[in-house]
Amino acid sequence: MLEETETIEEFLTRRSADVEEAVRDAAAAEILPRFRRLAEDEVDQKSGPHDLVTDADRLAEKRLTEALGALLPGSVVVGEEAVHADPATYEALQGDAPVWIVDPVDGTRQFVHGDDGFCTLVALAHRGVVIASWTYAAARGRMATAVRGRGAFLDGERLFAGTPEPGRDLVVATSHPDYTTDEQKRALRGLWTEGIAPRPCGSAGLEYLAIARGELDAVAFSWEAAWDHAAGLLLVEEAGGTHLTRTGIPFRVTGANALPFTAARDTATAERIAGLLRTPA
Fold first, then answer.
1. 170-278 is classed in which CATH architecture?
2. Phi/psi-derived region of residue 259, left when phi > 0, alpha when psi is between -120 and 50, beta in every other case
3. 13: pLDDT confidence band, cut at 50, 70 and 90?
4. pLDDT in tens, 155-206
5. Three-state SS across the chain?
6. What CATH number matches the domain at 8-158, 3.30.420.40, 3.30.540.10, 3.40.630.30, 3.40.50.1220?
7. How does pLDDT run across 203-255, given as a tens digit for each residue?
8. Do 8-158 and 170-278 come out as alike in CATH topology?
9. Which tens digit of pLDDT belongs to each residue from 41-100?
10. Quick check: 172 and 218 in contact, CB under 8 A?
11. Residues near 64 by beta carbon (within 8 Å), at least 6 away in sequence
12. Cα→Cα distances 225→90, 91, 169, 222, 273, Å
């Protein structure tokens, strides 16, 4: 918990390892035992065939909500499954209390299909600013962390996004068409141009990690659910990258963003992608 007069940054110095342990524990207890062992009755659809939820999502989020709330009394949790059950809980992002932003299984479709390309995402935000994040690819045994102003790390090693090599096409992961409006589809078509190599995205959290590692040049996403983006955007920033909406301003986890938006390895790449997203197609 926050001690008297302690800042959130000081809390993280003391307890960030405990947060990491809580993330690992939730995955070990609720996610990994169900990986490639899901029964039919443990999988449901939310808004459609590409929007799945499993018992692993629900139970891991419940466990994380309890553990994170205990670590930081007075904080609130905005989790994907809780918001699906009660959309009003999303409004906590606008409040003054510290907020844990949780996606228990990012890449549920991959998880259901037995693909190891999924992760657990946790971020800590305060008054709209993401301060820390944890990205845990449990099936791969990889943990990425970031604290604002202190860098991004993968399994303890510092991450640097770097700059794309000159002269080659920029690889950009893009939103699934099922999650885009007609206007967003037109904006994304701006990426189908010389020098850009768009491809469909997988788990958002793992795409952000790929940017932070210098393995992917950018993403172009058309949705703004905070649990998908908060952890990864901080990871990218702390690795030296940046993010911009179509209007050229950084993405806000509190919402009201001009979509699609981009996150990229460096400022020049982000500006190029954001410019293409503004170009009528």
1. 3-Layer(aba) Sandwich (3.40)
2. beta
3. very high
4. 999 999 999 999 999 999 999 877 788 999 999 999 999 999 999 999 999 9
5. CCCCCCCHHHHHHHHHHHHHHHHHHHHHHHHHHHCCCCCHHHEEEEEECCEEEEHHHHHHHHHHHHHHHHHCCCCEEEEHHHHHHCHHHHHHHHCCCCEEEEEEEECHHHHHCCCCCCEEEEEEEECCEEEEEEEEEHHHCEEEEEECCCEEEECCEECCCCCCCCCCCEEEEECCHHHCCHHHHHHHHHHCCCCEEEEECCCHHHHHHHHHCCCCCEEEECCCCHHHHHHHHHHHHHCCCEEEECCCCCCCCCCCCCCCEEEECCHHHHHHHHHHHHCCC
6. 3.30.540.10
7. 999 999 999 999 999 999 999 999 999 999 999 999 999 999 999 999 999 99
8. no
9. 888 776 655 677 899 999 999 999 999 999 999 999 999 999 999 999 999 999 999 999
10. yes
11. 22, 23, 26, 77, 79, 100, 102, 104, 120, 122
12. 9, 12, 29, 10, 21
If we measure between CA atoms, which residue out of 181, 219, 228 comes closest to residue 200? Answer: 219
Q: Which amino acid is at 263?
A: A
Q: Give the residue-averaged pLDDT of 276-281.
A: 77
* The pLDDT value given to residue 47: 60
**Residue 169 CB partners (closer than 8 Å, separation 6+):** 195, 196, 197
Domains of the chain, residue spans: 8-158, 170-278
